[in-house]
Amino acid sequence: MFAERERSKSISDQMKPSGRHIIHIDVADFPIAVERVLEPKLRQRPVVVAVETTTRSLVFSASEEARQQGIFRGMPLYMAKKQCADLRVLPPNEDLYRRATQAMMEVLEKFTPVYEPLRFGHAYLDMTGSTRLFGDVKDAAASIQREMRARLSLGSSAGVAANKLVSKVASDFVSGLGDRFGLYDVRRGDEEYFLAPLSVRYLPGVRNKVYDELRDLNVRIIHDLAEIHVEHLQMVFGRFGQVLHQRALGIDPRPVQPVRQAPEMVEVEQLDDDSNDYFYLLA
Q: What is the pTM of this model?
């Protein structure tokens, strides 16, 4: 067991990137946050973004107040309305969200030319080459948060770490503490210790079937997952077992990569009734 653990740590050390400083910025419930900037009366109210043109519409985004009423993203809209009588439903406004995303990116590029926008309201920044200009990365993250609030009236959480995985978990972690505009810094070398007591749900890819299988193995926290030999994880999860093992140890060699195409919302039209009639679907 000890030899296996030492071999695993040796491999981990070889894969860990050195010298990187990554920030993950997260504007929670971005579509609703943007809508509230334009219409302050929406604040402190249960709000969702959804298409109301069909009875089978799903909730695209839900405010914290709506989630407190049991509403969640992907929930059928008719169920959400039954769950919350005073629910405010907003139609998706992709053009608005795209313009707000562009404004957010303009703030971020003042701090580093190397940033990677994800879905609306999320982005990674590689501050490795910018520390001489902005000093400590944690201070830079705090400056970004202040700038976004001052220029865009958007609050955000931030995670600072040596890689993308841990910075994302850090921002999720501080948001989970109830501080949706907080900042958490994971020092280099502390990745495994930071992750150890957290639920495995914090790790990307641990959802639904994977989570159920881990629960069947009595694996609840990331420490338990990190202690399982990688060969055993591969027996259960195939190639993804290797990825799980690396993530549990806080390993993520992926670089921050600017994307060519900005995030966008895709509107899906749902039929009132199921059909496999080709000409009906084509129409």
A: 0.81
